[in-house]
């Protein structure tokens, strides 16, 4: 009996306790839920304050901020006809490693303002600076001290400001950009095929600093960049630039730079018709900007004499059949240095004497770009191009470097390239893998009296300089963020 009574008492007590818990479970939390200033919230505020103190922040909440860019590194194998080597981990100047700060803010429904700061790698180990004697891309002392530029555990400086500019845009009037930016002007290849990181419009951004070699292995005092385009299309400088709104696929751009001595304009178009994607453009630019003197002297003839006058025209056309992925793209450029009386100022490779010859440069590429494997477009391509007279003068141009074979009286130059390759986009990683080959061949005509150029019977007679081809294979990746 006693056990039964005890059992019943315990059961009643348990029931009362459970009822109390149930009532408390309903009523008490509702009271605490209204108490937002409790210890839990104070702890949360403390942790937020700690995160804010240790995290990079924008200066204000009105201007948006986006950080973007890419890391582009590759392996280069080269063969100059007498020696070959592989360089590892270098930056590809076709589309250099860089990072960008972008900002924008809406002033009203029609007007926006913003900025762009782009910093790119210009240190050693870049493809346009390498040669047979220097795998670091910089001969001699580095910034901060002597020694190998990329000596183990010695850091290279990062780079320079590619773009630093602000802009203001009205959706019906267009955009005005002020600062360091690409000028309006000559249009080169518009890359619908997505192969520009391995097959650039320029011929000299991978092996331009390599020296041209002769049939017996001699090194000429000329680099491939001396006879190729200067990669100066839409050159970057300090300017004011206007870009119109898109009008039925057309955009008109104009810019003025320096002291008003450098200006240009271009018209571009993009559209699609019955599955054919079209991108085209044509531009003109003119520079009469004087080269800054090493020593300032108001009586210097370079200050008081005739100014430079360099003009360039160029256009590009690209077509892609979207269903099949077949594409054809290319460009052609002409430059006029207004010789005789030419004065060099650095624009469009204008170095040389008063008889600097006018130049041409063209390239055609074709291939197919399609998502065969489901991870992103695969592009297979071939290319051919020609650059004429970039290293020539009508009266003959001389090239001399201590220890190298001088080349004198150069009156004609041609740089021919052909190549092929493959690129593979990896959409899930915002990256592109590639492997490409480019062959470069030179035709150089000289009339100099030196042993390098002159014919035995008539030293003044034009003679073709015997040269070797250079082969370059590059493989790497662009990883974007």
Q: What does it look like?
A:
The N and C termini lie far apart (80 Å). This protein is mainly beta. The longest helix has 32 residues. It has a domain of 322 residues: Porin (Beta Barrel). The protein has three helices and 21 strands.
What's the arrangement of secondary structure elements?
Blueprint: H1 2-33, H2 39-54, E1 64-79, E2 84-91, E3 98-106, E4 111-121, E5 159-170, E6 174-182, E7 211-213, E8 219-223, E9 236-243, E10 250-257, E11 262-273, E12 276-287, H3 301-304, E13 310-321, E14 326-336, E15 359-370, E16 378-388, E17 397-399, E18 407-426, E19 431-446, E20 463-465, E21 470-480
Strand order of the largest sheet: 1-3-4-5-6-9-10-11-12-13-14-15-16-18-19-21
Low-confidence parts, pLDDT < 50 over ≥5 residues?
Answer: 1-37, 140-146
Number of helices: 3
CATH topology of one domain: Porin
Calculate Rg over CA atoms: 32 Å
Per DSSP, what share of the residues sits in E-state strands of 2 or more residues?
35-45%
How far do the termini sit from each other? Answer: 80 Å
Q: What is the N-to-C order of secondary-structure elements (H for helix, E for strand)?
A: HHEEEEEEEEEEEEHEEEEEEEEE
Overall, the morphology is globular
